[in-house]
Amino acid sequence: MIPELIQVLAAAEETGSGPDVGKILGQFAQYGVVGLIVVLLIIGVIVPKYVMNALTAEKDNWRTAFEAERAAHQATREQLAKAEERGDVATEQGKAMTRLLHELGHQPHHVPGSA
Question: Which residues, 6+ apart, have CB-to-CB distance to 91 below 8 Å?
Fold first, then answer.
């Protein structure tokens, strides 16, 4: 059974077209349901329960990591928005202070070479 499968797969590799599933199924048809199950396991159509459980756990881990990353990005966006608001407040306070100083008659000294 296995040597025949190896011969079919080797022949498929030589032609470069990939394995011919029909030939593989034909080789295993003589073995009945057991042969069909073996072929389906080999080509990956069906998988054992432990493999499916591992894939499901990996999917859940990726989803958890994705959600944590999304939450971290949201927190960063909120902090940036707060920082922008603080910057706007500081700018407005500076402008108000400058206007107040001008109204009180204070003229800033311009230092040569500064902007």
Answer: none
How does pLDDT run across 51-76, given as a tens digit for each residue?
889 999 999 999 999 999 999 999 99
Report phi then psi at 98, rounded to 5: -65, -45
Evaluate if residue 11 carries a pLDDT over 60. yes
- CA-wise closest residue to 22 among 1, 41, 36: 36
Residue type, 80: L
| Residue with tokens 């999917």, as numbered in its chain | 59
pLDDT value of position 19:
60
Residue with tokens 């500064």: 114
Six token digits for residue 115: 């902007």
Alpha helices in 1-115 (DSSP H): 2-15, 21-29, 32-43, 49-103
Structure tokens at 30: 């003589």
79 pLDDT higher than 70:
yes
- Residues 21, 44 contacting (CB under 8 angstroms): no
